[in-house]
């Protein structure tokens, strides 16, 4: 009797396991994988526009949101069909190295320098980003850097270079590399009252602003361009060339561009479409 | 999650708020949350099942058999209990990547990949703890086994059966490890909405969005699910015991 009870429950557990695993292994949906950056996901943009593409094409877009550096690396390994990131020089190198087919501009916004409202470095109202960074360095006020080779981190390092500040030397003292995504870095900055640099979209959608505010903005050098690339099917046979291209065509076409422009958080437009037909 | 609240709060308000938010999420049975909870349980149950199928026999063999290098294996499995999830995630990613040896399986960024990663994490726990539990029992039974000339695999079945209640705790230890980890599943699953998003990766995502109250509320929900699973297993165990001694 007892044995029967236990074999019955063992069989039930086994059956449950098989039922639970089976749908995980068989997946016939039509989908593509897009390696993208955290800013497009955390800002809510992709959640807003991807259903529109799915309604039209029947193709589900599965987004892996990581830093641009990791997205490029994953795409290099063929783990994704499309790249949607924001580090133009690295993207152009990706295509030049043969890992991507072609790069197209999609949209832009800008970076902003954020800091505590008390502003110990006195950068509020500046529109010269390297000057603001130099003032932060001079005051030795804490600065939280992504430190993760993301698009934002690449941009930030370029700006430090323009400011002629040696951040390598300051790392560990006032210059703090979190090695994390934008959200985690903003959380860290809020926690220690540090300055940091963020893309505007992530900042606007971020909910734990605490005592932080935008202090420096409006410098042309803070421009933030997003690009889209089809991963080269000649390098990786598993790349879904046609469905991936269909997504790119939609994104840089009239409908996708309109959807991007229409997305707002708190009445503010986060991304500005700027695809051109003759893409480079 | 479909629930939005006023924007700016202090840390302490966040803390208090997360409790009421957690209860609201459970009370309304938010469908987005339901999907994430179901996937968490599905992935972890499958991983623990696989880990048991592999780990229980190995643990039993290590408890019964005496062979050169056995001590080394025991130390090895004990060490592997401390495997960092992010390292397991990285290894499984490198295996399943299109550039890796098992890329043809097309498992990366699916629940299948998450199940594999968690099974790798949990198996050493099942092996090491099973070996420990059965070694103690084997010491008691050794004379009987020897006098009756029982082959080792039959002895293993006897030990596993007689230690079944203690082994439930072993399985629960594995379950707790798997359901709570984020490092491995976020790398091999990719935290894709509606496909590979589980409780822990959703918590990581909400934290990165700065929605600390929602993140903590999800953590509380996860804790309550773990509580329910543990309570259910303990209830089964208690009633089975009553039947056994009735």
From TrEMBL, chain A:
It comes from the Bacteria. InterPro entries: ABC-Tungstate_binding (IPR052738), PBP_domain (IPR024370). Keywords: Signal. Residues 1-26 form the signal peptide. Residues 32-255 form the PBP domain. PANTHER family: EXTRACELLULAR TUNGSTATE BINDING PROTEIN. This is Extracellular solute-binding protein. It comes from Stappia taiwanensis.
């Amino acid at each position: 009797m007892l044995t029967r009870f236990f074999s019955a429950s063992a069989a039930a557990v086994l059956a449950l396991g098989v039922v639970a695993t089976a749908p995980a292994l068989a997946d016939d949906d039509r989908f593509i994988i897009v390696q993208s950056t955290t800013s497009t996901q955390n800002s809510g943009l992709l959640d807003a526009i991807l259903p529109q593409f799915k309604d039209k094409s029947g193709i589900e877009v599965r987004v892996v949101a990581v830093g641009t550096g990791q997205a490029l690396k994953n795409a290099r390994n063929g783990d994704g069909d499309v790249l949607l990131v924001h580090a133009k020089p690295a993207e152009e190198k990706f295509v030049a190295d043969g890992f991507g087919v072609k790069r197209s501009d999609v949209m832009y916004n800008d970076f902003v320098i954020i800091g505590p409202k008390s502003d110990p470095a006195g950068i509020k109202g500046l529109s010269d980003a390297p000057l603001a960074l130099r003032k932060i360095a001079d005051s030795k006020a804490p600065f939280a850097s992504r430190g993760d080779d993301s698009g934002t981190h690449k941009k930030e390092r370029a700006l430090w270079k323009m400011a002629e500040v040696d951040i390598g030397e300051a790392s560990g003292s006032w210059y703090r590399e979190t090695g994390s995504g934008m959200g985690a870095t903003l959380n860290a900055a809020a926690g220690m009252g540090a300055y940091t640099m963020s893309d505007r979209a992530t900042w606007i959608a971020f909910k734990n602003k605490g005592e932080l505010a935008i202090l420096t903005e409006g410098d042309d050098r803070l421009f933030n361009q997003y690009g889209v690339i089809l991963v080269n099917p000649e390098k990786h046979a598993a790349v879904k060339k046609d469905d991936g291209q269909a997504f790119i065509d939609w994104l840089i076409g009239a409908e996708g561009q309109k959807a991007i422009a229409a997305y707002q958080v708190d009445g503010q437009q986060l991304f500005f479409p700027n695809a051109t037909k003759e893409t480079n | 999650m479909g629930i939005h609240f006023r924007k700016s709060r202090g840390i302490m308000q966040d803390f208090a708020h997360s409790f009421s938010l957690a209860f609201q999420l459970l009370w309304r049975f938010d469908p987005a949350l339901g999907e994430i909870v179901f996937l968490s349980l599905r992935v972890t149950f499958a991983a623990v099942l696989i880990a048991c199928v592999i780990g229980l026999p190995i643990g039993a063999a290590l408890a019964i058999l005496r062979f050169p290098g056995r001590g080394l294996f025991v130390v090895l499995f004990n060490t592997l209990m401390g495997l960092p999830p992010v390292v397991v995630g990285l290894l499984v990613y490198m295996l399943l990547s299109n550039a890796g040896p098992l890329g043809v399986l097309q498992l990366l960024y699916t629940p299948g990949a998450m199940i594999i990663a968690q099974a790798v994490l949990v198996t050493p726990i099942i092996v090491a703890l099973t070996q420990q539990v059965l070694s103690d029992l084997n010491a008691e039974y050794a004379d009987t086994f020897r006098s009756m000339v029982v082959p080792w695999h039959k002895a293993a079945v006897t030990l596993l059966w007689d230690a079944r209640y203690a082994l439930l705790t072993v399985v629960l230890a594995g379950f707790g490890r798997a359901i709570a980890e984020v490092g491995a599943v976020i790398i091999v699953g990719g935290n894709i909405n509606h496909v590979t998003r589980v409780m822990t990766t959703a918590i990581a995502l909400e934290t990165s969005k700065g929605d600390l109250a929602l993140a903590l509320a999800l953590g509380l929900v996860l804790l309550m699910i773990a509580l329910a699973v543990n309570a259910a297993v303990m209830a089964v165990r208690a009633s089975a015991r009553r039947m056994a001694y009735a």
